[in-house]
Amino acid sequence: MKSKINKAFVEHFGGEGTLFVAPGRFNLIGEHTDYNGGFVFPGAIDKAIMAEIRPNGTDRVKLYSIDLDASAEFGLNEEDAPKEQWARYVFGVCREIIKRGGKVEGFDAVFSGNVPLGAGLSSSAALESCFAFALNDLFNDNKFDRMELARIGQSTEHNYCGVNCGIMDQFASCHGKKDNLMRLDCRSGEFEYFPFKLDGYKLVLVDSRVKHELVDSPYNKRRESCERVARHLGVETLRDADMAMLEAVKGELSHEDYMRAKYVIEEKQRVLDVCDALLKGDYDTVGRCMYATHDGLSKDYEVSCEELDFLNDVARECGVTGSRIMGGGFGGCTVNLVKDDLYDNFIATVKARFNEKYGHEPQIYPVIVSDGARRCCSCEG
Ligand code: GAF
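Above: inputs. Below: predicted complex with 2-deoxy-2-fluoro-alpha-D-galactopyranose.
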């Protein structure tokens, strides 16, 4: 990727810039809990966006995306927003830095990536984190800490891309650490690294290749449901609610809002249970929680689709320890915890069965937990 970017930079702008990289993420458990002030348990993955960037001494930003073979150019004032959605991610990051009192001047940039688009692996968060990290380094003497960089990415989604996402994806992309998961308390912003080593098991993502698109998806509607219930209960977020409180007002809520909140309250506890179980090497409990999350996301939160439920069924049939929808839902991947000795059979079976039913094989991505956003002095590739 590095040499491809260097070459394109020379062709488009001449000379060379500085390379930065930021990864996508996976999440072991804790889905749709982030915007409810709950816990999440993600890690950065080995798929990333890489950008070469150089200040150009003007007040214009010039971008070239290798993967789209497209260019865009814009100024840095609010009214200069580019019309291309992909460029709005970068524009949003610039604006959010400026709004926080940071400095951004004109620059030239070429970028590319291998985070599959629409697979629920947070390609957009990787793009935002890459540019947030780079512009903090190049123009701001790194005055924003990594949590603030994550918030810059999140606000970009809210204010320039129409997705009212939580903080998980940008957090994971900015804070990732090789071979570590992170348990983040999304209310306080406190987090812990958990050294991640599976004994006798593998984690693998199975991508349905049903493209999810969070913009205009019912994602924002799910968040609205949760906020409505929290208001009804008189709490700030569903983090402060429990099942007894929810049952007490069940008759006053729509069935849909009740089911959404029930899922979130249950999921909040599952994250804590999985962290404890993982520390004890109790993979059966981890797996049971993953299946329970899938059921909750599919039946109560209703963010699954036929293909993801099918992948989950095949995992159960193959004796996979845990399997569930990962990320926002509506397509994308399942994450699967598989015993070493069942792995090859599971992969072969899931490919064949999915192909038989939907006419194409799912993509398989073994989870490799990697470092977060960084200046790319010694990046591979
Ligand atoms: C998407 C969002 F961007 C995250 O903030 C999170 O809510 C996730 O869906 C669901 O857990 O990836």
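The chain has two domains: 2-195, 201-366.
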